[in-house]
Write a structure and sequence with these properties.
heterodimer; A: 324 residues; alpha/beta; Rossmann fold; 2 domains; five-stranded mixed sheet; four-stranded mixed sheet; 12 helices; globular; B: 397 residues; six-stranded parallel sheet; two-stranded antiparallel sheet; 14 helices
Chain lengths: 324, 397
C-alpha cells in the first residue's frame, strides 16, 4: 500500500472522483497550472483540462457564487478557498445561498458542492493564515462540516463528501499537510460522514479532538498513559453530522471529558460538545467537562505556541480532570 | 504662519502642478449609451432587429395586464392581513416580460425579487404562486420562505433570496457550466440599480467577462432602492457604462417599451449564444409604488417625481400601439381585463382552499437531502411540546 501525506491523499481523491464523474469540476485561485499554493490540485489541469480545473479571478464570493450556479445546473463543483481565513468574503454565498438553497426552494433545487480549505495554526501565519472557523459553519443548518486528521481519512472523507447530496465544508489541517503520513489504499474508498473514530481505548477520561489537534491530543494521551492516566481518544472527523452516539458511549464509560480545539473558546464547537455531553451523560460525569482551546483573541503571530492547545496544556487538563 | 494652498492655482494646474485634464462630461456617457426605444409617442413602432409576432405581443400584453392586476390585488390582500408581505413591479412590466420572453425555453432565469411575472411566464400556475404567498400547504416552498420568494424548477426559474446581487455570480456559474457541457443555454439574471453597489454585482460581472459566460445581466433601473435614489447609489450617469470596466457589452433600453426591451434582450441572447460574451442590459424604468408593502414612498419621495412616469406607463404605451395596429380595441381591452380579474379570483379561491399550514414535519424537511439526527430529534421534541400545550403553535400564548 502506498504511503501518502494529506496533500497527496486529497489530490488522489480529487483525481479519482474527476475520473469517475465528468460533472466534478475544481475551481479556485491558483488551482490550475500552478496546482494550488499547497499543491493539492497539482497535475489535475494536465489530466482534465482548463474547463474542469479552473483558475478563477481573486474573489471568494465569486468562486462560491459561480459554484452555486454550476451545482444548480448539475455539475459537482469542488471550490477551493486558498486559506480558511479568506472564506469570509464568501460567507454570504455560503450561509445565505449554499446552506439554504434546498430548504428555501422546498427541495426543488439543491447545490451540493465540497468547499475545500486549509485551516489552522502553527505555521507562523498570523491571524490571516491560521484560523479555525469551523464553528461558524456548523452553526448554519444546511451545511456539513468535515475535518480529517490523516491521509487515509482525508481521501476517504473527501470522496464521501464529493458524492454527498449536501454541501460540505472540508477543512484540511494544513499544519500536518505534509507531516502526517500514512498508508493509503490505491483506488477509491469512502469513509462515511458522521462517524467518529476511537483511535485509543481507555477507561478514565475521554478526549475529543479533530484535525491537527488530534495529533496534539494523541501525544498528550501517550504522555498521560506514562503518568498512569488511561485515556480514550476520539477523532471526531465529521463535526456535522456528528457521531453523538460514539461520544456519549465513551463518556458514559469514562465519566470524564476533555475537549480540544484550536479555535477560540467562546462559542467554539467545544461549547456545543460540552452541552451535548451533559445532556446525555449527566449522571455519569465524575468531573466538570474541560475545554483546552485557543484563547479569545485574534490568532497571534509571535506567541502562537502559547496560543495553541499543545500537548502539555492538554496533559495538564487531563491531570486536573482525573484528580477532581 | 501656516502656508495656505492657493486653491485657484490648484484648480488650474491640479495638485501636483500638472495641467489638469478636461473634466469628464457626464452627458458623454448618455451619448455613448443612448436609450434604445421602439414605441413612439403616437403608438407607432420603429425598426427592431427581430420583430415579435403579433400573437406573441398579444400574449405578453395579457401577461402584463395580469402582472399589474395581480400586484394591485395582492397589496389589497396584504392590507387585509390575508398575506404577510408583497413586493410588486407596477410600472416595470415591460422590463420583466420583455426580457424573460426574449429567452428560449431551455434558458435559465436567476431572479431578484421583483420578477414574479417571469415565473408565471415560465409556467408556474397562478394558484401555486398564490399558495406560496399564503405560505400554506399548497406552497411548493413548504412555507419555508416569506412571500414573493418563489422558485419554479419546471420553468428553470431558480430560487429567490433577499440578499442583494447574490444571484449574479450564480447565473454566471450556470451559464459557464452550460458552456463547459456544450449546451446552448443562456442564463438570464435580474437585479436592481441598488444592487450595482454590491460586492456580488462586481464579482459576477468580472467573472462573466473573464470567462465570456453566456449570460444576460438585466439591471432593472427603477430609480429607487427603497428610499435611496439612483444618484445616491452610484456616481455613474448610466448603469450600462459599468460594463466597460469588465470588458463586456453594455446597453441601455427604455424599460417601459416592451418592443425595445424584447429586441435588446433578443440581441443580448444571440451574442451570448454565439460565444460573444455577456451583456449588461440596463432597462430604464421607474418604481411607481413603494419598495414593498412594508414602506410608504410618500415618506421619502415627492409625488411630482412620479407624475411624469405615469405618462410613460408601459401597458398604456403598448395598448396605444396595439390600438393603432388594430390588434386591440376598447371592447377587447375591457374584456381581457375582466377575464384576467376573474382568473385571479378563481386562482385565489383555489389557493385558499389548501390547509393554512403545511404539515409539521415540513419544518425539518429539505434542510439536508435527508434529515440528520438533530432534525429528527427536534421534530419529536416539537411534537411533544405541542401535545403538552397547543399554544406552542400560536403567535401569542
Amino acid at each position: 500500500m502506498p504511503t501518502m501525506n494529506v496533500i497527496q491523499a486529497v489530490n488522489d481523491a480529487l483525481r479519482l472522483e474527476m475520473r469517475r464523474d465528468p460533472s466534478v469540476v475544481v475551481l479556485g485561485e491558483d488551482v490550475g497550472k500552478f496546482g494550488g499554493v499547497f499543491r493539492a490540485t497539482q497535475g489535475l489541469q494536465d489530466e482534465f483540462g482548463a474547463d474542469r480545473v479552473i483558475d478563477t479571478p481573486l474573489a471568494e464570493s465569486g468562486i462560491i457564487g459561480t459554484a452555486v450556479g454550476m451545482a444548480l445546473y448539475g455539475m459537482r463543483p469542488v471550490p477551493e478557498i486558498q486559506f480558511a481565513d479568506f472564506i469570509f468574503p464568501a460567507f454570504d454565498q455560503i450561509v445565505s445561498e449554499v446552506a439554504k438553497y434546498r430548504y428555501r426552494s422546498g427541495g426543488q433545487y439543491a447545490c451540493p458542492m465540497v468547499i475545500r480549505t486549509p485551516y489552522g495554526g502553527g505555521i507562523r501565519g498570523g491571524h490571516y493564515h491560521s484560523q479555525s472557523p469551523e464553528a461558524h459553519f456548523i452553526h448554519t443548518a444546511g451545511l456539513k462540516v468535515v475535518v480529517p486528521s490523516n491521509p487515509y481519512d482525508a481521501k476517504g472523507l473527501l470522496i464521501s463528501a464529493i458524492q454527498d447530496p449536501d454541501p460540505v465544508l472540508f477543512f484540511e489541517p494544513k499544519r500536518v499537510y505534509r507531516a502526517a503520513k500514512g498508508e493509503v489504499p490505491e483506488g477509491a474508498y469512502t469513509v462515511p460522514l458522521g462517524q467518529a473514530k476511537v483511535t485509543r481505548e481507555g477507561s478514565q477520561v475521554t478526549v475529543l479532538a479533530w484535525g491537527a489537534m488530534w495529533h496534539e491530543a494523541d501525544q498528550a494521551v501517550r504522555e498521560a498513559a506514562a503518568a498512569g492516566i488511561d485515556c480514550e481518544l476520539l477523532d471526531l472527523r465529521s463535526l456535522q453530522p456528528l457521531d453523538v452516539d460514539a461520544i456519549a458511549a465513551s463518556v458514559n464509560k469514562t465519566g470524564r471529558a476533555v475537549i480540544v480545539h484550536e479555535a477560540p473558546r467562546t462559542c467554539g464547537f467545544g461549547a456545543e460538545l460540552s452541552a451535548l455531553i451533559q445532556e446525555r451523560c449527566f449522571l455519569r460525569l465524575e468531573a466538570p467537562i474541560a475545554r483546552v482551546t485557543g484563547f479569545d483573541t485574534p490568532f497571534p503571530y509571535t506567541l502562537e505556541n502559547e496560543y495553541l492547545p499543545r500537548a502539555p496544556r492538554i496533559l495538564k487538563a487531563l491531570r486536573e480532570v482525573v484528580a477532581f | 504662519m501656516r502656508k495656505v494652498h492657493d486653491l485657484t492655482t490648484a484648480k488650474r494646474k491640479g495638485w501636483n502642478g500638472e495641467p489638469r485634464p478636461e473634466p469628464l462630461d457626464p452627458s458623454r456617457w448618455e451619448r455613448e449609451f443612448p436609450i434604445h426605444r421602439v414605441l413612439q409617442e403616437d403608438g407607432s413602432a420603429g425598426p427592431t432587429v427581430e420583430p415579435i409576432p403579433d400573437a406573441e405581443i398579444l400574449r405578453l400584453y395579457r401577461f402584463m395586464v395580469l402582472g399589474r392586476q395581480l400586484d394591485e390585488r395582492m397589496v389589497k390582500l396584504q392590507r387585509q392581513g390575508r398575506i404577510g408581505f408583497y413586493i410588486g413591479s407596477i410600472g416595470e412590466e415591460a422590463t420583466v416580460f420583455g426580457t424573460a420572453a426574449a429567452m428560449e425555453e431551455r434558458d435559465w432565469i436567476f431572479p431578484c425579487y421583483r420578477e414574479h411575472g417571469a415565473a408565471l411566464l415560465r409556467g408556474m400556475p397562478l394558484p401555486t404562486f398564490l399558495a406560496h404567498l399564503l405560505g400554506n400547504a399548497g406552497d411548493p416552498m413548504q412555507g419555508h420562505q416569506m412571500p414573493c420568494h418563489e422558485a419554479w424548477k419546471p420553468g428553470r426559474y431558480t430560487s429567490i433570496s433577499s440578499p442583494i446581487a447574490t444571484e449574479v455570480p450564480q447565473a454566471v456559474g450556470a451559464a459557464w457550466a452550460a458552456r463547459i457541457r456544450g449546451d446552448d443555454m443562456v442564463a438570464l439574471t435580474y437585479f436592481g440599480e441598488g444592487a450595482t453597489s454590491a460586492n456580488d454585482f462586481h464579482t459576477g460581472l468580472n467573472f462573466a467577462g473573464v470567462r465570456k459566460a453566456p449570460v444576460v445581466l438585466v439591471c432593472r433601473n427603477n430609480g429607487w432602492a427603497i428610499s435611496v435614489p439612483l444618484e445616491r447609489q452610484t456616481a455613474s450617469p448610466t448603469i450600462a457604462q459599468k460594463a466597460i470596466a469588465y470588458g463586456i457589452h453594455g446597453e441601455r433600453v427604455d424599460g417601459n417599451d416592451l418592443l425595445a426591451v424584447h429586441d435588446a434582450a433578443r440581441r443580448a441572447r444571440a451574442r451570448a449564444a454565439a460565444g460573444e460574451g455577456p451583456t449588461l442590459l440596463e432597462c430604464v424604468t421607474y418604481r411607481m409604488e413603494g419598495h414593498s408593502t412594508s414602506d410608504d414612498p410618500r415618506a421619502y419621495r415627492p409625488a411630482e417625481l412620479v407624475e411624469p412616469w405615469r405618462r410613460k406607463d408601459p401597458i398604456q404605451r403598448l395598448e396605444k400601439h396595439l390600438f393603432r395596429r388594430g390588434l386591440l380595441a376598447e371592447e377587447s381591452r375591457a374584456r381581457l381585463a375582466e377575464e384576467v380579474k376573474a382568473e385571479i379570483g378563481r386562482a385565489l379561491a383555489e389557493a385558499e382552499a389548501f390547509d393554512a399550514k403545511p404539515p409539521l414535519e415540513t419544518l425539518f424537511e429539505n434542510v439536508y437531502a435527508e434529515p440528520l439526527r438533530q432534525q429528527r430529534e427536534q421534530l419529536e421534541e416539537l411534537r411533544a411540546a405541542l401535545a403538552a400545550d397547543p399554544r406552542v403553535a400560536r403567535a401569542r400564548g
